[in-house]
Amino acid sequence: MLDIADLDAWYGESHVLHGLNMQVPDGKVVSLLGRNGAGKTTTMRTIMGLMGKVRGRLSYEGTDLLKLRPDQVARKGIALCPEDRAIFPSLSVHENLMLPPIIAQGGMSVEHIYELFPNIKERSSSRGTQLSGGEQQMLAIARILRTGAKFLLLDEPTEGLAPVIVQQISRTLAEIKEMGYTILLVEQNAHFVQGIADIHYLIENGHIVDRLEAGEFEKNIAKVDKLLGL
Q1: CA-to-CA distance for 176 and 9, rounded, in angstroms?
Q2: What is the spatial distance between Cα 213 and Cα 13, in angstroms, rounded to a whole number?
Q3: Is there a domain that residue 114 lies in?
Q4: Are the C-beta atoms of 25 and 197 separated by less than 8 Å?
Q5: Quick check: is 156 in a domain?
Q6: Quick one: 215 exposed, middle or buried, by C-beta within 10 A (0-12, 13-18, 19+)?
Q7: Cβ neighbour number for residue 153 with a 10 Å cutoff
Q8: Could you give the CA distance from residue 47 to residue 31 in angstroms, rounded to a whole number?
Q9: pLDDT given at position 106
Q10: In a domain, 27, yes or no
Q11: DSSP per-residue letters across the chain
Q12: So what's the pLDDT on residue 230?
C-alpha cells in the first residue's frame, strides 16, 4: 500500500502540496480529481522522487520513498505514465515499447501486451508521429506494463481523446485491474473514473478536501462537478 501523510512539496519557492493525506491500497484503482493547478501532477511527481523539496511521510510497502532516488522508486515497481505520453516520434511503436528497461520481475510479455492493445499490434511498425492521440496513450500505458511495474501512476489518460477511445481505455484499465495491478488515476473527467475507481480523492489547492468510496461517488457527483468547475 502507498501511504501519504502530511506531505508538503515545493516547486522552487512555491508551496504546492499542503499536508496531503491519502492511501492507495494494493490491487485497487484510486482516482485523484481536481482542477488544473490543484496539485494532482505534483503528487505523482513527488511519489516518483522528482520534486526537489518535500517533507512529510511517503511510504510504499514499508519503504520510505522520500529517501530514494527516482530510479530506486522505479525499481520498487512504480511507474509513471505522464500526461504528455512521452512517445519517441522517430521510433516505431515496437521500438517505443521495447525501449524502457525491465525494472522488476513479472513484466507483461509483448505478446500479452498486443492481446491487450490490438490497436498497438496493428501499428507496431508505425512511427510515433503517425499515431493518433488515443494510440499514443495506449502505447504509453503498454510501455510501462512491460517493465514489470505493478503500481501504475496514470496522469490524465483521457485528456483530448474522442469518447470512443475513452471507452476503450476504460475497458483496458478494468482488465488491468483484474490482473491485480494497483492504479493511481489523476483525472478531471469524473464520469470516466466513476465506473473504474474504488476510492476517489478530491484535491484542491494542494490538499485533500474529501474522500469518497465508489458507492458514495454517484450520490456526490454534483459536489465533484462543482469542484472541477463543470
Answers
A1: 30
A2: 35
A3: no
A4: no
A5: yes
A6: exposed
A7: 25
A8: 15
A9: 82
A10: yes
A11: -EEEEEEEEEETTEEEEEEEEEEE-TT-EEEEE--TTSSHHHHHHHHTT--SEEEEEEEETTEEGGGS-HHHHHTTTEEEE-TT----TTSBHHHHHH-SPP-STTPPPHHHHHHH-HHHHHTTTSBGGGS-HHHHHHHHHHHHHHTT-SEEEEESTTTT--HHHHHHHHHHHHHHHHTT-EEEEEES-HHHHHTT-SEEEEEETTEEEEEEEHHHHGGGHHHHHHHTT-
A12: 61
pLDDT tens for each residue of 143-176: 999 999 999 999 999 998 999 999 999 999 999 9
**Number of other residues whose CB lies within 10 A of the CB of residue 103:** 19
Read off the C-alpha cell for 230. Answer: 463543470
CATH number at residue 149: 3.40.50.300
111 within some domain: no
Instruction: Count the domains in the chain.
Output: 1
Per-residue pLDDT at 195:
86
- Quote the domain boundaries for residue 33: 2-83+143-227
For residue 19, give the C-alpha cell: 499536508
In the sheet that holds 2-11, the strands lie side by side as 14-24, 2-11, 53-60, 63-64
93/91 Cα distance (integer angstroms): 7
Residues 101/149, Cβ–Cβ less than 8 Å: no
User: Which residue stretches of the chain have pLDDT < 70?
Assistant: 230
**Cα radius of gyration rounded to whole Å, the chain:** 17
Sign of the alpha-carbon dihedral angle for 81, 87, 75, 110:
positive
The amino acid at residue 87 is I
C-alpha 151/C-alpha 194 separation (Å) is 20
Give 138's strand partners.
none
